[in-house]
Each structure stands twice: as C-alpha cells, then as structure tokens.
Amino acid sequence: MCDHAVTAGQPQLVDVSKLDRRLLLRGLASGTLLLVAGCATNTETGRSQFILIDDAQLEQASLQAWAQVRQQTPVWRNAAAQRRLESVGTRIAQAAGRGGQPWEFVLFDSNEKNAFVLPGGHVGFYRGLYDICERDDWMAAVLGHEVGHVTGRHAAERYSREMATQTALQVAGTQINSQIAMAALGLGAQVGLSLPFSREQEAEADIIGIRYMHAAGFDVRQAIPFWQRMQQSGGSRPPEFLSTHPDPDNRIARIRDYINQQGWGPV
Ligand SMILES: [Zn+2]
User: Fold this and answer.
1) Catalytic pick from 146, 157, 202, 204?
2) pTM of the predicted model, to two decimals?
3) Over the stretch 197-237, which tens digit does the pLDDT of each residue have?
4) Ligand 1: distance of its center to the CA of 197 in Å?
5) 3-state secondary structure of 42
6) 154 alpha carbon to ligand 1 midpoint, in Å?
7) Which residues pair with 108 in a beta bridge?
8) Burial profile 134-157: b = 16 or more Cβ within 10 angstroms, e = fewer
9) What's the chain's Rg over C-alpha atoms?
C-alpha cells in the first residue's frame, strides 16, 4: 500500500524526485500540483514504500548526522571488542547482500544498552549493549536488526512520511511561511536519528535481521534468549533500545513464530 499522496487543488501529476523543492512548494501552495511521489517496491521486503528522497540526499544527510554523533559521543577504545563487532557486522552485511558497500561499525563509550544505524551504513553500538552480548549470535541479532533498517529503507520512508505530512500542513494553512516550509522540506542533519522508526518498521527489521543471522550462519534461536536478557536488564526503566521498539513480549513471540515457521527452531 502506498496511499500517502498529498493533493491540492486542480492537480497535475508530477514526479517530485525530478522537481526543484522551491517549485514543488509553490506548486502545492497554489494548488496546481498533486504530489504522488515515488512509490517503490522494496526488493528486500516486497512491500511498496512511499519514498520522496533519493539515495544521494539520504547518504549526504547520513554523513552529516554521523559526523555529529562522532563529535558528541566518545568512542570506546577496545581493540578486541572493535574487531569482534566488525567481524560480526561484516558477516551480517555480506549475508544481506550489502558486502560491496562501505560499512562503519563504531563502539561508543556509553552505558546505554542501545545501538543505532544510519542509512549510509554507519552503525553505532554502545558499550552497555556490548557488555550484554555474551555470544556473537546475540550481537548478530542486534546487527541483523540494524542492517535490516537500512535494506528496509526505513529512514527514507520515515523521512518521506514526515515531509509529506508537513507539506500537507503547510499547504492546508492559509499562510505559507516559505522559510518554515523550506526547512520542513530540507534535510536536517538529524534525519534517521531524530525520527524514530515506527513499530511496523521495527517489527520488519526484527524479521529481516533473523534472515540475515541465518544466512550468515549464526544461531537464530539465540535471538530469543538475547531479547529476554534485554527485557530483564531493563529494570524499572526499559533501555532506550526497547522503549522505542515494539512491546518486548510481542516482539519475542513474533520472532519465535518466525523462526519456527522457517524450520529453524524449534525455539
Ligand atoms: Zn530498530
């Protein structure tokens, strides 16, 4: 399904990826454009996605966001841990069919039990999460999930929805402040970081991640104790990685079902 088109007035169909953004906004404001932007089928998931941003723009934003994180967060300097992260990460990336693109795996010195990925292939992994990953299979569960966000094109999808919503709001209003509108249409350096993924995207990344784990030769059954451990380690306040992610019980049940359905269990 791809039903996020933004309409205004007497429409004219356009391909927004080929349109200057200032013209786009003017067209929307004057009601002469119908925004039917790129619905593309994701080869990894078979799901149709609403994507307004091209890969080069996303790559650029990703690099900016990465530079910002690198500046703000100290790196955890542990050569053995770094080697382990890169080894597992590289196996997962290759299993995802993305071994040919550059990936960067960085350990950050923070107690957070968290990890993140940027669409350009930059993966941040926090020491607090690393310390939990007593097996490479557990680390692979995290990295499979993160790489799944990239191949699932989740940042582009999230950004595109946000942009369409904001554009629709701008157009709906009687006053169009071009500065604000341009900011809404422009790309902040925070893309992919400031916009949380949806629950559906998180669930999708979980399943894609299990597939990559399996393809890379990791023990997918270990995803279950890993997520159970994450759940336990949350204490009264769940770790951020969980709080922005689906309900842990549902999540574990879904992953379990998938593994068993694939015949990779029983688990
Ligand atoms: Zn996620």
Assistant:
1) 146
2) 0.78
3) 888 888 999 999 999 999 999 999 999 999 999 888 764 34
4) 7
5) coil
6) 9
7) 75, 126
8) eebbbbbbbbbbbbbbbbbbbbbb
9) 20
